[in-house]
Amino acid sequence: MELSNSPERAWLSWTFKGLPGRGEAVALDEIGAQSWNVLDQDVMLPVAVIYNSAIEHNRRWMTAFTTAASVRLCPHGKTTMSPQLLEMQIADGAWGITAATVAHVRTYRRFGIDRIILANQLIGKQNIAYIFDELSCNLGLDFYCLVDSIAAIELLETAATHLQFGGRLQVLLELGIAGGRTGLRQDDVALQLAERIAKSPLLLLRGIEAFEGIVQETACDENTVRGLLERCARLAEACAAAGFFAGVPILSAGGSGFFDLACSIMSRAAISPNFDVVLRSGCYLVHDSRLYQELSRRLAARSPDMMPPGPGLKPALELWACVHSMPEPGRAIVSIGKRDTSFDAGLPRPIKWCRSRPDGPKALVGHEVVRLDDQHAYLDIPAESPLVVGDLVGFGISHPCTTFDRWPALYLVDDGLTVTGAVQTFF
Amino acid sequence: MELSNSPERAWLSWTFKGLPGRGEAVALDEIGAQSWNVLDQDVMLPVAVIYNSAIEHNRRWMTAFTTAASVRLCPHGKTTMSPQLLEMQIADGAWGITAATVAHVRTYRRFGIDRIILANQLIGKQNIAYIFDELSCNLGLDFYCLVDSIAAIELLETAATHLQFGGRLQVLLELGIAGGRTGLRQDDVALQLAERIAKSPLLLLRGIEAFEGIVQETACDENTVRGLLERCARLAEACAAAGFFAGVPILSAGGSGFFDLACSIMSRAAISPNFDVVLRSGCYLVHDSRLYQELSRRLAARSPDMMPPGPGLKPALELWACVHSMPEPGRAIVSIGKRDTSFDAGLPRPIKWCRSRPDGPKALVGHEVVRLDDQHAYLDIPAESPLVVGDLVGFGISHPCTTFDRWPALYLVDDGLTVTGAVQTFF
Predict the structure, then answer these.
(1) Is the ipTM of this complex over 0.90?
(2) Residue B256 has what pLDDT?
(3) Distance between CA A93 and CA B13 in Å, rounded?
(4) Is the pLDDT of residue A220 over 70?
(5) pTM here?
(6) In this predicted structure, what is the pLDDT of residue A128?
(7) What is the CA radius of gyration of chain B?
(8) I want to staple A249 with a disulfide (CB 3.0 to 4.6 A). Which of A245, A294, B155, B376 is the partner?
(9) Tens-place pLDDT, residues B25-50
(10) Dihedral (CA of B318, B323, B329, B331) sign
(11) pLDDT tens across A324-344, in order?
(12) How far is A264 from A283, CA to CA, in rounded Å?
């Protein structure tokens, strides 16, 4: 698959808060030629930056991992919603791109992506109508969505009749866990639903799916995850034996914390002659400095034999902002807030500071964000903090998805924080 | 002040997730002519909607309040960052618009807004350069920012020399509270800083300011707020007596929870011959169904004599989404998540449901959001819940600021949820 970007040239303008000056439009492909440096404050702060070196490393890492594991990668694009970053993943051989919503699918189609898993039920009049329309008009589109109830199947069939959709809809049957999100809890019910799908004139049962990533907040994560993935494998075996699948069956899972287990457990399914394991991990590309760093550490400890040689995934995303005020001992107020950073899986971490570019960024230890307002961070700082008003602080983040959606664009930087380009996002 | 919008026609396209169909661009001024109805699912769900009737009511309410209190309103535009909504506030007689960041100021300038309070310190090379540039090029621009430290003043003066800025910068001295955000904690230090500002060749001391809205999470809010506002009044009196002010002094405060106290306390300052009280409340226009509803209830109870006749502020913003799955008893999964709704001041509240437009929306009781993922809400539902897969659920939200920034556009609707137009946002 090749990404055929829109022929129009992309521009950044005043609608991007990080652009310096009066906000006159700059072509995306000329951003690098500006020679802006973040430490020189050539850009309007706060900004979000992505280190080229970390992205390149993470790309090589994941390619090595999936190659060794003999699995396909259909990375979740919802993390970044960025055509430039999705293009990198496709250049690395991604089998397709995963979407969370039909609006994402529509956006991907604008980017020219032609194999998409909607890792969600297809529900809602306009959502269904758009997908049927897109499938009717683009016979090369390879689209999959999830199903987890007879009610959803009936809504789809009714809509297909009403809209006179003559095509077939490829679906993955979704398994879930008690207390979890979507997905069938009972395997016998799931098998009945698989049969129902196999008999539907509209649907094609293409595989079995789960999202094990919802399990990441409890102590006994791993066994719950293993159990769910094993259930997927057993259900796929039963469906294969019963002849319910159309085509080569797909077994798919993979948030960004347990994709080792998704590979090892799903790959052992006893389905002949063959089947595909499709990972949907999306956060690997940018990684983070907290949630996924910890999940990744556990993953490496759990599955050392599966790890590519060398270092693991690296955090590629940082936020840089100014110290605005040091209004009382032990406190600095810095110019990033809920509008700039994720805070749903841990607050951002102040890890670097800089007063002037020649001095370079230095490690910042003992500083902690304790509260965020819409546009301000409250930092607890030690008595010996080097910070003064006007200094720059660099933050690592936790959970890239909810940081990306706060930025219409992010700068690409080299290790010295010189801007080499930018990526856009479309949320 | 009149808002001179960009002469280009505004369009909604595939970059707006709520647009139906393939995302072909529709002119903003033709959205109403489409006769879309949310309950008929003519738009792609989820969507954010604003009730015209509630907005109109809130506009009248705030106009009545500020007129009776004889205060000026400079509403915080960061809540919505929407030119169409800011235009309403300016049409209602807003004295200016408040910004949280220099990027907001730049955006407002694109909207044609010519009186702006940056309710923040002006820090950072590009931020300062932009403001100096804009002031130099637009002599009609009436711009104010905050100061709370000698360090910030020195950064501004150094930048002015370096950039050869020959103008004057109007500043408000900021007071704060111990354990709070920005702003001076000590009144004697503040008075010294006022004198320093008065003597600066760059700065003009135009007033005294505080943001009392950071105090809303503790039990003894009200006394803390009163104390801060009284300190502002006393400091302004001292600065006036010392001749530190340039022009008619401004006393400014006012988040959206205590603007009654800001009016009553600041208006009693003993400054002759005259001074202006400038409220910066922004959330009144859209209001909400949780945080500000409660703050507003307390405000009305505290200051009954200041309330305009009739009902108080009404929640204007709702989110509508589909039930995607009912995977186990007591649980519904609905298609809104952290990408669609605020969750920093309470989770959204499922308050309405609808199966088909002729039946109309009905009240939904006993349902509660207990978890949000990026694109999913987990609802605890009672055994007698009317919901089935495919039904629509309407949510009230808590904290409009962090809901607006998740939507490039929001639909304007009549009370029957027919779309009459849309407003854009620029975050």
Answers:
(1) yes
(2) 87
(3) 30
(4) no
(5) 0.96
(6) 98
(7) 23
(8) A245
(9) 999 999 999 999 999 999 999 999 99
(10) negative
(11) 999 999 999 999 999 999 999
(12) 20
Q: Does B219 contact A at CB distance below 8 Å?
A: no
Cβ–Cβ gap A121/B325 under 8 Å: yes
Residue A8: band (very low, low, confident or very high) from pLDDT cuts 50, 70, 90: low
Q: Please, what sign has the CA dihedral across residues B189, B191, B192, B198?
A: positive
Nearest to B390 among A102, A151, A333 (CB): A151
B residues 234-253 lying closer than 8 A (beta carbon) to A: none
Q: How far apart are CA A289 and CA A345, in angstroms?
A: 11
Cα angle: B366, vertex B370, B376; to 5 degrees: 110
DSSP string for B220-259:
THHHHHHHHHHHHHHHHHHHHHTT---SS-EEEE--SSSH
Backbone dihedral region of B164: left (phi > 0), alpha (psi from -120 to 50 degrees) or beta?
A: left
Choose among A102, A155, A375: nearest Cβ to B101: A375
What is the SS3 assignment for A87? helix
Distance between CA atoms of residues A270 and A240, nearest Å: 9
B20 touches chain A (CB under 8 A): yes
pLDDT tens across A156-200, in order?
A: 999 999 999 999 999 999 999 999 999 999 999 999 999 999 999
Contact B124 A427 (CB under 8 A): no
To 5 degrees, how large is the angle CA B427–CA B163–CA A320?
A: 40
**Do B126 and A184 make contact, defined as CB atoms within 8 angstroms?**
no
Q: Which helix (H) or strand (E) holds B304?
A: none
B100 touches chain A (CB under 8 A): yes
Q: Which two tokens stand for residue A307?
A: 């790890």
Of B44, B374, B427, the CB nearest to A339: B427
Identify the sign of the CA torsion A186, A190, A192, A193. positive
How far is B55 from B50, CA to CA, in rounded Å? 8
Contacts of A208 (CB under 8 A, 6+ apart): A172, A173, A175, A232, A235, A236, A239, A249, A250, A251, A252
Peptide bond before residue A400 is cis, with ω within 30 degrees of 0:
no
Q: Does B138 touch chain A (CB under 8 A)?
A: no
CA distance A3 to chain B (A): 18
Q: How far is CA A382 from CA A329, A355, A364, B164, B231, in A?
A: 9, 18, 10, 37, 29
Q: What is the mean pLDDT of residues B245-270?
A: 95
Joined tokens for residue B137: 């090029």
The CA distance from B140 to B264, in Å, is: 31
CA–CA distance, A352 with A363 (Å, rounded to integer): 4
Distance between CA atoms of residues B275 and B269, nearest Å: 9
All residues of chain A having their beta carbon less than 8 Å from the beta carbon of residue B389 are: 121, 123, 149, 151-152, 155
Distance CA A175, CA A214 (A): 12
Give A92-147 pLDDT, tens digit per residue. 999 999 999 999 999 999 999 999 999 999 999 999 999 999 999 999 999 999 99
Chain B, residues 172-201, CB within 8 A of chain A, namely 176, 178-185
Q: Which of B106, B123, B411 is the best substitution to test chain A (most A C-beta atoms within 10 A)? A: B123
Contact criterion met (CB < 8 Å) for B127 and A45: yes
| pLDDT tier for residue B381 given thresholds of 50, 70 and 90 | very high
- From the list A130, A184, A333, which residue is nearest B327 (CB)? A184
Q: Which residues of A touch B18 (CB under 8 A)?
A: 103
Statement: residue A422 has pLDDT above 80: yes
In three-state form (DSSP H/G/I as H, E/B as E, the rest C), the secondary structure along B87-142 is HHHHHCCCCCEEECCHHHHHHHHHHCCCEEEEEEECCCHHHHHHHHHHHHHCCCCE
Name the token pair of A36.
């802006």
Q: What single DSSP character describes residue B202?
A: S
